Every structure is written in structure tokens, then in C-alpha cells.
Amino acid sequence: MTAKEKEWITRLQMIQLQSEHPYLEDYYYQEYYRRIEAKMAEEELGIRGKREPPKLTTLYITKTDSYTPVVHIEGSLGQVAVSTCYSPRRAISAVHGVQAQGPLEACSSFWRSLSSDTILCFKCRDTGGEFLPFLLVSKGKRLLSRLLPFLKNDAALEMLRIVTSNLPTLMSRDTEEALPVLYPPFRNVIGGLTFSQLIKVLKDLTSDSLTLACQNKFGLSLLYALLSQGEKLLSSSVPLEPSIGDFETWTDTIFQVAGQLSQCSLVEPLLLPSNLLTLFCRYLDKHTVHQLKSNME
């Protein structure tokens, strides 16, 4: 670096230290030396042997109206805009004023933007293949469990169907056993499903992964939650408005699940709903219900 270039850089740095509003833009430095000067003024006049503390002084450089907009340095790889160097604080401050948000508003805004990005991911997928790698890591599962309460009903249902349709892959890759963190938010999602939506989710779960689900804590808990929600809907006085074939599919699912639960050894679920035996009593004989009760407990 030549002497001319060093001088130019020094001048540039000194310009950046200049301020037309020192108490606004450099308040702490100005206030610090104001207190020191006030303290020295109160000292006795005879004490003059004390050294004055060093104070940063900058050369005031007059800004000119006419200047070369771009400075070329020989041998450099870029160009420096002098306008930004002459008014660094003004250039940095040239942003739109944003009203300060509290911690709750900022947190809510973050999750709203994140949920909108997730919905865009849903629109770009067919079977959740693009979103599945996100769920294969424990951090992705924890993030999804925090995101689900902020999603709209349609987006939360899509997320539930992605998990149920890819449950064998998720269970086989869940080495850290992080899937249970998804159960509480998914249980809330299941509690808001209609009968037709419930049938679609049950189809995804029982088509390929029923046997594996019964041997996994998260899968079995999810199955129990779906059956419990179906029993609540059937027992309530709210009109179900089912689609064609929903009741037949529901009955076939009950027999399929009951046969699987009575044959295999079950793991302990995260939560055992109290209305499951009532559900099985609607469709099964007493001997099968007794066998299911002893196997489930």
C-alpha cells in the first residue's frame, strides 16, 4: 500500500468519525467527557499538575457539493462510493421507521411468517416427499411441534396426513425417539377433525403402517387418539355430515385395528383414552373386548 493510499484510508476513517449531531449519534462518548470536564472544573485551582485525559479529536472536513461520485484506486478490485463515505450515518439511517414491537408481538409475527412459509411448502408437494427430510431430524420435529399451534386448520391437517402416510419411515429413522414431542399438538389437531377428515387420516395410517404403529409408542398413541375422536363424534349430537362410504370404512377400520391389537404385543402408549373400550363394545363381542382390554392394559 502506497503512502497516498494510506492517506486516503486515514482520511476516509476520519470522515466516518465526523458527526453533525454528536449528542444524538455519539451520546455516551460525549456524556463521558462532559462528566470528566465537570469534575475537573470542580477541583481546586492549585491542582494543575494532573495530566488531562486524552481526548479524541477529529479533523473537521468540509463537505463539498461537487465531488467525484466514484473513486478509482490503482490496483484495487472494486470502486468506493464517496457519497456513502461522506455521510455514513445518514446512509445507515436511510431506512423506513418501524414501530417497536413487544416480545409477544415479535414472537407472534415470527411464527406467522414461518407458518406461511410452511403452507407454501404444502402447496408445492404431492406426498410430502419434499418436506419429509425436515421431519427425519429431531430438531425438525421439535420445530414442527412449536409451529403446529399457529397453523390454520387446513395446514395442520395436511401436516398430520404427511406424518401418518410416512409413519414407517419416520419411526425407522427416529433413533433419538423425538417423535413423541409431536403427540400433544397433533392430539389437539385430531380433536378438531370432522368425521370425513378423520376417515382420510385413518386410511393413511392403517393402509401400510398399522402393524408398525402398534409397536411404536408414538404410532400407537396417534392411533388411539384417532379412534377416540371417532367415538366422541359418534356419541355427540352434532351432525356428522359424512361422505359416501365413510361409515363402511369406519367399521372396517375398527375390525382391522381390533384384530391387530389382539394379536401383537403392544407398547405402552403416551396416553390411553378412556372411551376406547366403549368404542370396541359397539362393534365387537364380549370375548374380543375382554381380550383387547387385557392386552391394552
Tell me what you see in this structure.
By secondary structure, the protein is mainly α. The chain folds into two domains: 3-43 and 62-89, no CATH class; 103-296. 61% of the residues lie in helices and 1% in strands. The protein contains 17 helices and two strands. The protein has helices at 3-17, 22-25, 27-42, 82-86, 88-92, 103-123, 132-135, 138-147, 153-165, 167-172, 183-191, 195-208, 210-213, 217-235, 246-263, 276-283, 286-296, and strands at residues 70-71, 80-81. A two-stranded antiparallel ribbon has the order 1-2. A hairpin with an 8-residue loop joins strand 1 (70-71) and strand 2. Helix 9 packs parallel to helix 12 (195-208). The longest helix has 21 residues, at 103-123. The relative contact order is 0.06. Residues 89-95 have low confidence and may be disordered.
Distance between the termini: 81 Å
**What's the tally of helices?**
17
Shape: elongated
Strand line-up of the largest beta sheet: 1-2
Order of helices and strands: HHHEEHHHHHHHHHHHHHH
Return the structural class. Answer: mainly alpha
Q: Roughly how many Å is the radius of gyration?
A: 34 Å
- Total strands: the figure is 2
Mean of all residue-level pLDDT scores? 77
Low-pLDDT residue intervals, each spanning 5 or more residues: 89-95
Q: Which range does the strand content fall in?
A: under 5%
State the share of residues found in helices, binned by percent.
Answer: 55-70%
